[in-house]
Amino acid sequence: MDMTADTTWWWIATGALIAIELGTGTFYLLMLALGTAAAAIAAHLGAGPAGQMLSAALVGGGAVAAWYLVRRGQPAALPTQANPDVNLDIGGQVQVEAWNADGTARVHYRGANWTARYQGQDAPAPGAYVIRAVQGSMLLLDH
Question: Which of 3, 53, 118, 133 could bridge across to 82 with cysteines, CB 3.0–4.6 Å?
Fold first, then answer.
């Protein structure tokens, strides 16, 4: 069997997996690409088809399993509307002059007037508040 042809197909598979991952954002495909790259290296080193498949399965499968275990131990991400890594307004401070009867208020923030809603447990009172989430064009406030 022609070793050059084997390595070429493995490198093409690696490139295809990386391209698909870039299009979909599925990080697990990069782990599988590690497996196909390992198979290409095994082919360069003279391994037969069984050795190439075994190296692809061990490296790719091991990388997927390792990534799954790492991700499983991490806490779930906050929803986008309340995630300060996504929305830089989270954690910002505003001053509320008065609350409306329906639990909303108009606040001035970043040069514009916003509608705000209190999401705490106690009764809202005028004063300083922290933005905890942004829901559409409404700021959700708490102390």
Answer: 133
* The residue type at 81: Q
Eight-class DSSP state of 77 = P
User: pTM value?
Assistant: 0.55
Within 13 Å and on the Cβ side, how many CA atoms surround 53?
3
Detail the DSSP E strand segments found in 1-143: 93-96, 104-109, 112-118, 127-135, 138-142
Single-letter amino acid code for the residue at 142:
D
Amino acid code (one letter) for 29: L
Question: Which residues of the chain, if any, have pLDDT below 50?
Answer: none
Calpha distance 37→11 (Å, rounded): 6
Task: Kindly list the domain boundaries of the chain, sorted by start residue.
Answer: 3-72, 81-142
